Amino acid sequence: MDRSQVRQGVNSAYTRLKARLCTNHYPPGTPLGADALAHDLEMGATAVREALIWLAAERLTEFDPHSGFVVKRATQSEIADLYNLNQDLLEAVAARIDRTVAASDGARLFHQARRICETDGWTSAGFAELTGRLFHAIAGRSDNAEAVYAVSGISDRLHGVRCVEWAVLPAAAAELAELCHIFYRAEPGELSGSLTAYHAYRLARIEEICDAFGKTALIAA
Fold first, then answer.
1. Cβ atoms of 187 and 174 closer than 8 Å
2. Rounded to whole angstroms, how far apart are CA atoms 176 and 51?
3. Taking the complete model, does pTM exceed 0.85, yes or no?
4. How far is C-alpha 184 from the chain's CA centre?
5. Kindly report the CA angle at 21 between 16 and 26, in degrees rounded to 5?
6. What tens-digit pLDDT sequence spans the chain (221 residues)?
C-alpha cells in the first residue's frame, strides 16, 4: 500500500469517526478500541488508530492510561469556556465584517432558517448543523484563517450540546433564525450585540443545558 492509499484510509477513518462523535453516537467516556472500531467500520486498525490520535488533537477523544482512547468527557466548565471563546472570536470578526460579502452567505442561511420555522421542521441535528454553518459563515468573513479553523473546531465540540439547546431553550429556534437574518442584513454593530445576547442566554442556562446533554449521552449508551 503506497502513502496516498494510507493517507486516504486515515482520512476516511477520521471523517467517519468524527461524524459519529459529533452526533453522540458514542457517549462521553466510551472506550474506543482501534481493533473493535476497525471491525465495525470495516477498515484497517492502523488507519483507525491514526484517526483517533488526530481526533485527540482536536479534543474529541482523549487517551486514558488504563482504557486507551475514550470519547472526550466535556465538563460544564469546559462547555462554558467554549461558549465564551466562540463569542470572543465571532464578535471580533463581526466588528470587521463586509456588508456586501456577508449578505450573500446570510441570505441562504436566513431563507433556510425561515423555511424551517414556517414548517416547524426543526430537528436537534438540523438545529446544531445550521448553527455551525452560520458561525462558520461569520468567521469566514474574517481575513484570519485561524479564526475560521478555531470556530469550526468549537462547532465540532459543541455539536452534541447544540443538539439539546433547542429543547432546553424555548427561544432558541427563533433566535437562530433572527441571527441568520441579522447576518443577512450585515449590520456589524447589530450582529455583535446579538452574538453577545446569544451566548449570555446559554451561559445563564448552562446547568440546564449540561444536564440535558448528560441525559442524552446516557440515553445513547
1. no
2. 33
3. no
4. 21
5. 110
6. 566 776 888 899 999 999 888 877 888 888 999 999 999 998 899 999 999 999 999 999 998 888 799 998 888 999 999 999 999 999 988 877 655 455 556 566 666 666 665 555 567 888 888 899 899 888 888 778 899 999 999 999 999 899 889 889 988 888 888 888 888 776 667 888 999 999 999 999 999 999 988 765 544 44
